[in-house]
Amino acid sequence: MTDLTINGKTVSMDLDPETPILWALRDTLEMTGTKFGCGAALCGACTVHMNGQAIRSCVTPISAAAGQKITTIEAMTSGSDRVGTAVRDAWVRHDVAQCGYCQSGQIMSATAFLKSLPKGKKPSGEEIDAAMAGNICRCGTYARIRTAVADAARTLG
């Protein structure tokens, strides 16, 4: 058994310790907001937070997450995360999503990035691009993603 803390709740899982977090979330817990993209940590669709840091859940085994705090996109919709709410609202204002497949990973990366900034820091376009570089969008909405992240940073003050 592996105990994981996901979105503030502890769950016990009887899975192989090498099972990627992604499959524990999707197949065992039926939390399907985190997406499978490439399976090789290259596209960012599977991004979740572990202790506030963006990680690729497709290659991170549940054994590495034992005792850590995992946050998924489902927690960003609850309204209890100020930064997540600002990012989500900016995504809607700027009509970022097209197909939407990459969006949960994009939002999780953007949220981790904004939380890592000093209070009141307004990131440049280049800083946003660098922070989001590991997330691929097949629809090419990168300009809208940059605009939404900058808008969320302004909203947060």
Automatic annotation (TrEMBL):
Domain of life, source organism: Bacteria
Keyword Signal belongs to the record: no
Leader sequence segment: none
PROSITE patterns cross-referenced by the UniProt entry: 2FE2S_FER_1, 2FE2S_FER_2
Keyword presence, Magnesium: no
Short name of one Pfam family: Fer2
TM helices/strands, residue ranges: none
InterPro entries in the record: 2Fe-2S-bd, 2Fe-2S-bd_dom_sf, 2Fe-2S_ferredoxin-like_sf, 2Fe-2S_ferredoxin-type, 2Fe2S_fd_BS, Beta-grasp_dom_sf, Diverse_Oxidoreductases
GO MF annotation, one: 2 iron, 2 sulfur cluster binding
Domain 2Fe-2S ferredoxin-type, residue spans: 1-76
Keywords: 2Fe-2S, Iron, Iron-sulfur, Metal-binding, Oxidoreductase
Protein name stated in the entry: (2Fe-2S)-binding protein
Native species: Chryseobacterium sp. B5
Record lineage: Bacteria, Pseudomonadati, Bacteroidota, Flavobacteriia, Flavobacteriales
